[in-house]
Amino acid sequence: MNQLPPDKSDPQQPADDSSQKQQADTSRPDNVVQGNQNRVVQGDKNTVIQGNNNFLNSTLNFIFNSARQISGESQILVKRDKVQEKLLKIVNTEVENRINSSLHNHVYIVLDKEQNPSQVESPWEMEVKVGFQPKFTLQNTEIITVFDLTDIAGRLLILGEPGSGKTTMLLKLASDLIKRANENPSHPIPVLFSLSAWKKDNQNIKDWLVEQLKEKYGVRKDIGKQWVENQEIIPLLDGLDELAAERQEGCIIKINEFLKPGTWSNPLVVCSRTEEYQHHATLLQLNNSLELSPFTPQQVYEYLPNTDNLQFWDSINNDVDLNQLAQTPLLLNIIVLSAQEISIETWQ
Question: Domain range for residue 140?
Fold first, then answer.
């Protein structure tokens, strides 16, 4: 993994104009009060106050210098610093490499995605005792579209069985968010984290994110802490189910503590296998969940001609075990890919 260099940037300081003296106006009005004292002078509207240290001069200098400093900060905000640019490039390379090496990407499958609010515990629903909404099905919908839905707002749980494409879906979401971050320097940077690296049961997620930014991407801890505090990243957390079963619920509790108001308001996405997640009494306090469903036999049949593999339908359909395997997207991809490398007779 590429490592980020130490941040050596030295922000420019606004120029000090306090030493500059105002030049007297040769056409000043009759009523002039001169002196070096800060005092209030009352009089008609033509009264002018002059002096090096009077109240008006001090106020004007303060406003002028503050305006210059704010202007300088605004210029910084429209462009990422070099360390963030480096991180964005590293994450982009990581996502591209992982997508390109994924079996799901070799023969891309459009999955059915089910939104399932019952898998997510919303603190507002608990407080007002509003029942969970029923499931509804989304077909051929891009993951970024689901991510942007108002009732999700980027706080999403991705569920699915082994081989259903959870991680691939997370990577495609990361790719879309990277595009946004490249187009808009103020957009948070999506960063991939594996929850299997959460080793300490008592470690809070904020400290863990800082630690992982250092270990995985080489970000200095003081810089990483600042990014997390300022919510300049979008954590994409994969592999909740990869933790030991007895530790998974403890991790869910720590994530919920991190999601409390005042701690984290940015988007956050978590991936887990459905079966393992459903065993826990504590649910993630995210806004909604997206469950990747297995294929139906009809979907398998429709998929084969789209990939020029309809000749395998009879073999798959007439074999109970093979038909069952083909309903898992990853295994259907393996079936199709293997068939492209050998003769039909050998494949059968």
Answer: 82-292
